[in-house]
Amino acid sequence: MIDAHAHIEMFRGKAPEVVEESRKHLKAVVDSITEYRKFHVWKSWELLKPYFGFVQPTLGYAPNEARRGNWEKVKKVEAFIREHANEIVALGEIGLDFHYAKTEGERRSQREIFHHFLNLAVELNLPVVLHARDAEREVFEAIQRAGVRAYFHSYSGPKDLALEIAENGHIIGINTGIDFIPAVREVAEVLPLESIVVETDSPYMSPYRGEKNYPWNVEYAVRRIAEIRGLGFEEVERATERNAIKFFGLKI
Ligand SMILES: [Zn+2]
Fold this sequence. Notes:
- Helices cover 45% and strands 18% of the residues.
- By secondary structure, it is of the alpha/beta class.
- The chain has one domain: Metal-dependent hydrolases (TIM Barrel, Alpha-Beta Barrel).
- The strands form two sheets. It has a five-stranded parallel sheet with strand order 4-5-6-7-8. A three-stranded parallel sheet has the order 1-2-3.
- α4 runs parallel beside α5.
- The longest helix is centred in the middle third of the chain and has 21 residues, at 104-124.
- The radius of gyration is 17 Å and the shape is globular.
- The structure holds zinc ion.
- Zinc ion (ZN) binds at residues 5, 7, 32, 93, 153, 201.
- Zinc ion (ZN) binds next to loops.
């Protein structure tokens, strides 16, 4: 199994333990190292660097940070991404989150910064990990225009758009919130298996109420997809692994 989207750095001092336990269950964890509030990408990078190989890093800028419109920070993160462009498997997460960005000013900042990093992904020839909430269509149109390969992480938008995303060769992350987010379940019911990866978004989105989420809980998403689709666990496990390896070009 591969967890295609986690944030192990958010466990701070416990991150090494979480990695060691994850190794017992998973082939790899794609960690989206993302600039967000006090989580600076350069610090998270140093924390996770000893585990690269098993931990496969991306670098990005959270939409909920982007709404603040801090361009000084954007430039610093951009420089860091350029410096490590050959070591990352994608650029992200980046995107739009209109659930949290309520004012026009915040949405404008999000859009400008999203497009800034989208252009960077094109320039560096990297696929993107997207965070899109209440703005899925707009994000989809932007990546189509840019011509990048994309992974919609924790997608909870409309079902018909999910199918369109898949038809256009992108992938969608079904997360461990599958049983408490109706939209995630609906998408899991209809998406072609070759368009699905599984993810935890750990430490968020635990399938077990009130608990922190860990990368090995990705097993929960595999099991539920298998049950919902009437497929074998191993078939879903193998397909989602294959999809993650192909999309990110993982060497494992
Ligand atoms: Zn995330």
